[in-house]
Amino acid sequence: MSTNKNKLTTSTGAPVGDNQNSMTAGSRGPTLIQDVHLLEKLAHFNRERVPERVVHAKGAGAHGYFEVTNDLSKYTKANLFSAVGKRTPMFIRFSTVAGELGSADTVRDPRGFAVKFYTEEGNYDLVGNNTPVFFIRDAIKFPDFIHTQKRHPQTHLKNPNAVWDFWSLSPESLHQVTILMSDRGIPATFRHMHGFGSHTFKWVNAEGQAVWVKYHFKTEQGIENLDVDLAAKLAGENPDYHTEDLFNAIDKGDFPAWRLSVQIMPIEDANTYRFDPFDVTKVWSQKDYPLIELGRMVLNKNPENYFAEVEQATFSPGSFVPGIEASPDKMLQGRLFAYGDAHRYRVGANHNTLPINRPIAEVNNNQRDGSMRADGNAGTSPTYYEPNSLGGAAESAADKPAPFEVSGMADSVSYDHDDHYTQPGDLYRLMSEAERTRLVANIVGAITPVENVEIKLRQIGHWFRADPEFGTRIAEGLGLSVPE
After folding, report:
1. Which residues belong to the active site?
2. Reduced to 3 states, what is the DSSP secondary structure of residue 394?
3. Residues 329-376: pLDDT tens digits?
4. Taking the model in full, what pTM does it have?
């Protein structure tokens, strides 16, 4: 029985006799190396920060539950969606994308919307954003894109020249950039924004029949956004504004909630739809594939410890459960590797054994050892190989992913569809005149610092192709003419 209750101890449990004064040779020192408590404190302090995430470094999180409100089991055998009324515990992490860990919450940036469902069949991670599309559609471009969002190697300042140079040379970014520069580019709070799985996924039912699916989380709090001047003021006065708002709302019992709906596309429609359904820079029209309600997500518990739960939380789009699978989305395909690999580097090879990431389902795999193994390491079991005849874990054929046909030449190819202008133009035309005016002003303000006129003209050309009025208004705001 412990005798150290309420006593300060070392990491090995020994009581600390003096935590105010280091041990020295006489009153003036020097300090003695035998003061192991001092050495331990300093050494641990040097190692308190794990590397921050390369993207989505600044974030806030909360616990809650997901409850099924509509039976869609005819589309998927996933247990967490199996019956009306079924509740699944979950954890969510909201974040900005480009800024560092200490950056302001109220900057113009997409927001990460990463959900971890602790299901009886293992953890299911849905790692999306507050936008239904993204800037690029092939993972091979992701490092280049993120490099443009980071700081100039000499000045260590943000670099609008790189940002707009890349976007102007990547017309597929136009849809997401239009959303980013609109009112929704600065949400009022994490509670007042929608969330999206963004990618197309595949659902498979108990009979092995498949459909394509997209996820939409609709906030019950309503959409609210920040005026640009107020956002800038808050960035200086309270850079943790969104983090504080989420914590305080849950702390006082004002539990935020979202309705989850899905779009369902028959498998064969992917071959004939007017946009490539796997291109994450495009949306599916809700007139073609209406939203179908699936359930409700409620956040009702704050983290007890930010580092242990929010900072060490790891999400991967590759964390699937039976009944939910990947699609040919090239951006998703790259993320299936990149996210898990980032966590193995940042948190460690055993990141999934940490309490915040640990499944509620029993884990029976053959992974052993590695840094910071703290879960018993499978005890005395010698059967960390398969196949085996000694009672170890074995494969289950019933849980194999659904087979799918592949064909064609192995080559580096683009998507078949290259219409990058229709959907951004449609979005512009859906906006009210006041929304259009603010959108144009935001774009003009963001692109004005770009020094290279050719970059500006190239980007204006994209806006003009989306909608002539759109491009012309931006050109006039920049004091330029629409290029021929």
Report:
1. 56, 129
2. coil
3. 999 999 999 999 999 999 999 999 999 999 998 888 888 898 888 888
4. 0.93
